[in-house]
Amino acid sequence: MASSLPRAQLSVVIGGHVDHGKSTLVGRLLADSNVLPEGRLEQVRSLCERTGRPFEYAFLLDALKDERAQGITIDTARAFFRAPKRDYLLLDAPGHVEFVKNLVTGASRADAALLVIDAQEGIQDNSRRHGYLMSLLGIQQLAVVINKLDLVGYQEAAFRALAEEYTRFLAGIGVEPVQVIPASAREGENLVGRPARMPWYQGPTVLDLLDGFLPSRPAVEGPFRMPVQDVYKFSGDGDSRRIVAGTIESGTLRPGDELVFYPSGKRARVRTLEAFPGPAPAALGAGCAAGFTLDEQLYLARGELATRAGEPRPAVSLRLRAGIFWLGRRPLVPGRDYLLKLGTARVPMRVVAIRQSLDAATLATRAPADSVARHEIADCILELARPLASDSVGLSPHTARFVIVDELEIAGGGLVHEALADPQMPVREKVLLRNYKWETSFIPAERRSERYGQRPTLVLITGPRETDRKHLAKALEARLFDTGRVVYYIGMANVLYGVDADLAREAANRAEHLRRLAEVANLLLDAGVIVVVSAAELEHEDLDLIRTAAPPDRVVTVWLEAAGQSGVRADADLILDAGAPLDAQLERLEALLVGRGALRDVS
Ligand code: GDP
Questions:
Q1: pLDDT along the chain (603 residues), means of 10
Q2: Cβ-based neighbours of 88, under 8 Å, separated by 6 or more
Q3: Residue 59: helix, strand or coil by DSSP?
Q4: Which of 186, 197, 198 has most ligand 1 atoms within 8 Å of its beta carbon, as the pocket-test mutant?
Q5: FRET label pair with 115: which of 11, 417, 446, 563, CA 20 to 30 Å apart?
Q6: What is the whole-number distance in angstroms between the Cα of residue 50 and the centre of ligand 1?
Q7: Rounded to the nearest whole angstrom, what is the distance from the C-alpha of residue 124 to the centroid of ligand 1?
Q8: Distance between alpha carbon 349 and the CA centroid of its chain, in Å?
Q9: Helix H or strand E segment including 390
Q10: Residues near ligand 1 with C-beta < 6 Å?
């Protein structure tokens, strides 16, 4: 049957404990779907008779190995066959390192998984391990076949008890099976035709089950996702266009689309699509290298993720639960510094917990584990140094996939299962909405920078209570002002009794006080101003909060140390000794600002 239209193909992984009937199920499925070359079944049967071996449907797979017959191809770990509805690629039980690696890296794809359990033997190690592996690999559809029902007299009660037990296990690892069905692969009960010996059963057959799996959505049909690779600026002839460039991972893009960039939450509309060379295309889709201009002059950094407003949003978080496959010679260990690369984002990362690990070859499990060895796949909680925009593998696998770099080498890959809440989440959500709603003026930030000869920067001066931070902050303001800078010192009281007048000054409101302070500073930063703030004893969490509400790359932190003491609490960019002469302190502060590119024309 030659057809010019490509037939739909679905890849299904078949898992389960050894001897529970996986090969029998595949062999019998082929035999009963009439795809075997003519006479082949009889050939295998008579060979068995001649050699005095009982016939096994699994032998069919061996007999067909490396043979390319019409509608069926079988090799070591895969069986391809044409069913009436569509083509199937059945992948063998996944006890292979390459299998895991290819699925984690996206080199191969599995649309669904089928787990086979022996009704008599019940749930065994690999029944559980395979189920767990499928969930770590992000396979979204999993169905269970309770096989060998003939050995338990086709009893409904036996089937129900096992189905319930295994569903409970799956629920514990966050998986809900699409279906659990009874069968006898050897007897051909409920494989392709309706079962004759299980009148109590009205549900789907194994083939119905396969036909019911949904194909993975092609990338182009997913939500729009484009990691920003670069922003190119035109210069000269009054052309101030900026082209945002990257490769579209999923979805499509058209002029007029409203985009939201994450993690910043900034928003603008696509003005034009650009092509080099050639005319601008009307639309671009997944897989395309894209360039576009926006109707607003946004400051966008590489690593932002472009998405379309109104479509499912990516998560922005400092904590992720992910399945990690490790390839490094040195094991992955909690507490060590790694770099996580997702799209064009690069974020320092640490593992805070390894909930369970699984050896990809032997499927041996350890839970919880203190490290992830080479060729293990593990369920980990990651903590990131900066908020990252990511999708869960269920929503958009293309932007759920990441690699881990250990000392410049790619040492692992992973899949984001979910973004977890982190302490800054409530404030971040407010900031995302603020940035989404933000109205940009006609004056781009760059033009303000050029005129003022500075880049807006928030200088936070903190330290122990007994140091005179306020004096230093005011002196810095005066010095910068005298050298022609646009600078403003925000007195804490000015905010406390003004913007914060409705907030009681109690510990429970500390985060809200800081958020409002950062919002005020953020407005001044947007105006192009260098802002100086002094506050006593800011802790790491306080700084994290301020860096969530104000642009983190525009914040510098200075710790003013009490004379002769040490005990720095905040992660300071500069530590000053309160005992040193004021001029010397100011010079060091100025040098810090020059180093940060805040003071443009100071040599
Ligand atoms: P695999 O290791 O999971 O691929 O298991 P096989 O397909 O090789 O089957 C292992 C053994 O179980 C073989 O001897 C099969 O004949 C037998 N078997 C498979 N399915 C059934 C079944 O439905 N009923 C019975 N009684 N035996 C089965």
A1: 67 93 94 87 91 91 74 77 90 77 87 96 92 90 97 97 96 93 97 95 96 92 96 72 92 96 93 82 92 88 95 96 95 97 96 93 87 95 96 94 94 96 92 90 90 96 92 98 96 92 90 95 97 91 91 92 72 91 97 92 48
A2: 9, 10, 11, 12, 80, 81, 82, 210
A3: helix
A4: 186
A5: 417
A6: 21
A7: 15
A8: 13
A9: strand 376-390
A10: 16, 18-24, 56, 58, 147-148, 150-151, 184-187
pLDDT tens-digit profile of 3-15?
456 778 899 999 9
**Smallest CA separation from ligand 1 atom 2, residue:** 19
Length of the chain: 603
pLDDT digits (tens, 9 = 90+) for 494-517: 999 999 999 998 888 999 999 999
Pick from 14, 19, 162 the residue to mutate for probing ligand 1's pocket: most ligand atoms within 8 Å of its CB.
19
CA atoms within 13 A on the CB side of 14: 28
For CA atoms 579, 582, 584, 588, give the dihedral sign: positive
**Residue 536 contacts residue 428 (beta carbons within 8 Å):** no
Tokens representing residue 589 in the block: 């502060």
N-terminal to C-terminal alpha carbon distance within the chain: 78
